[in-house]
Amino acid sequence: MRLLRLKSGDDFELITFNTDDLPSYAILSHTWTDGEEITYNELVAGTGKDKAGYTKIRFCGERAAQDGLQYFWVDTCCINKSTSDELSMAINSMFRWYQRASKCYVYMADVQVPEEVTDVQVFRITWEDAFRGSRWFTRGWTLQELLAPASVEFFSKEGKRLGSKISLEQEIHEVTQVPVRALQGQRLSEFSVDERMSWIARRRTTVKEDKAYCLLGIFGVFMPLIYGEGEEHAYLRLRRKLLKSSKEKEVRDNDHTSGLPDQSTQLRPSSNVPFRRDDDFVDRGDLLTRIDQRCSRPAGRAALVGFGGFGKSQLAIEYAYRVRQRSPDTWVFWVHASNSARLEAAFSNIAEKVGLSSQPDAAVDTLQVVRRWLCNESNGRWLMIVDNVDTDVVIEVQKEKEKVSLASLLPQTDHGAILITSRNADIARSLVGREKDIIAVEAMSDDEAVQLLGNNLGDKSKDGAIRLVSTLDCIPLAIVQAAAYINRLGPRMSVTKYLEELKTIEKQAHLLYKTAIDLRRDEQASNSVLMTWQISFDYICQKRPSAAYLLSFMSFFNRQGIPEFMIRHYTDKDSEGQNDSSGRRFAEEDVDFEEDVAVLRAFSLVRTTQRGYEFEMHGLVQLATRVWLRSTDTERKWYRVFIQAMAQEFPDGEYANWPKCQTLFPHVLSVAEQEDSNKGKTYEWALLLNNAGWYAWRQGLLAQAEDMVSKALEIRKEVLDADNLSTLLSSSLLGTTLVDSGKYEAAESMHRQTLAMYEK
């Protein structure tokens, strides 16, 4: 299979892969325009860039890059159609190629959105009629391109995202008459041959035989292409192929059931997922596709890893329902694994579900009986979702004096798959085995977050929605919590009023501590975003105090571009914050910077930037950390540690120091703008304000310079003598800043004061 990759500038390169070792890729679905598509030979020769088809290729490549995909596939130029063998192989493989794609982008050249429309969903009226009448819905080949991929996204001619196969499923169903169940991923083999044939009835193909050939993947059959045989004969061969496949399946089924107990006595596969499906589920890019790619392999395993409230369990719930929908013969088991008692109860529930005798007084027997059942291939396929595995879970059985670990209970069988959700990447890695099977669940995109807020607010005004989700860092639980609060207060509360409530740390903490009822969250898990996160903080503090120390220190920086050389100060020997909340003091040998960073990254509390030597945090994570410090009465102590370290590192504002000043200035600015009694009037705070103000003056940031230097002068007059050299320096700098600001009278007064202090 050939895949495209963007090169520098406007060029692409073709790379050939073995189909057993394909990387993640995006795929384009579109309608052809005669004479305007880029062929394989033209792409290789670097010609045809003036054709309309080149725009579509560039769109697909750029969109794939935005979704983090390096490779993409476009049918017009990735297949050498001049070779009949390659064309035949490609058409027989096409359904699988679309099925394996991480993303499918549908480019609708006949659907246009006015340039002035910025919110496509709000102004659907501008494009919905064109969408329903698009030529894309009338072509034969686009049927499999709609059904095969798990993630299908629709775009206008301008490249504006109209929605996905999920968000537009009702409109697509009405236009195509394809059942919603098929659009949601139910196995196509569960629809009758005649029903699947009906889906193509109103569609057209340029070549008559293609009307039969475009159904090969939908029926899961392979046959040689004979162009020139005519549509009727092609359909006749397809029918014969389907009849032969049906008879072969019947023989296999008879062979499989012979010698087994009466099938009527076996329980039908079912699901014990304890949550209802979310009708307002917001599709999260290609996350569900990536889960399915891993869990569809023999003995497949995947782990969703992210901070609390990022939506890991919601993704697992949606995936569970999709598996059951497309494969009713697959068992789906939900296992709560937050502690040993819940794990034991979950296995007892599975034993009951599959018809085994649960033995409450013999936990090991029940656990091992269930494990043996899972290993038995004759019991059919199964998917197990192990939720909230944040610690090493071990069941201790007193009677047998035996310890049973969670890892030992999860069999590796070809007919079973396991999906894990965890806040702890280290724990998840120990259960899935491979780094590539860990799927990071980050905050939502802006569009996803706005959609989630809108779904939860119902008919309420969405004014200010973008600002609100941005303020909440696009974190799902925080958004749901905010929507619940707004709904609860009815007409007395709106999105804009809620934003006003979030202006101070105290108000933010008050609102984010409130719980929101969510029937799709574990009843033993907190629905308050701050309480959810403090569980992680407490765990880290207990297991790795020095990592909690680092997190505390980092919470006072600007959340982006936190330099590594600064945060290494968290181990300063003279820092009064070296004592943790229990009064212990860290020994130097207990501190390992790389290990502490690894712990915080494992819990998704911090992440490294592409530069590698800078870190960043979510703003709400910083808020939660500060609230946590306040609850342990250590916030003031940590504030002073931060000021001391920053004062030590921030140089004066002269030219030679500008690179370092530029790196540190945003972190000083975020603290200087806050009115907080924790800073106090100290020599270090005055030094930091003076040097930062010096740099601001040199950069022409006169208002900020005046504010900082004024504060520095006030503190120095109080903690030092008025004629101290440092005080004179701040006074002189302030006078110069006032001159540059055009405040000549104030500048003259300040310079006279400086001169008087100097003479004294």
From TrEMBL:
GO molecular-function terms, A-Z: ADP binding
Ranges of compositional bias, category Polar residues: 260-271
Biased composition (Basic and acidic residues): 247-256
Domain of life: Eukaryota
Domain called NB-ARC: residue spans: 302-460
Gene3D superfamilies tied to this protein: P-loop containing nucleotide triphosphate hydrolases, Tetratricopeptide repeat domain
Domain DUF7779: 544-629
Domain annotation Heterokaryon incompatibility: ranges: 25-113
A Pfam family assignment: HET
Signal peptide: none
Region (Disordered), start-end ranges: 247-271
Protein name: HET-domain-containing protein
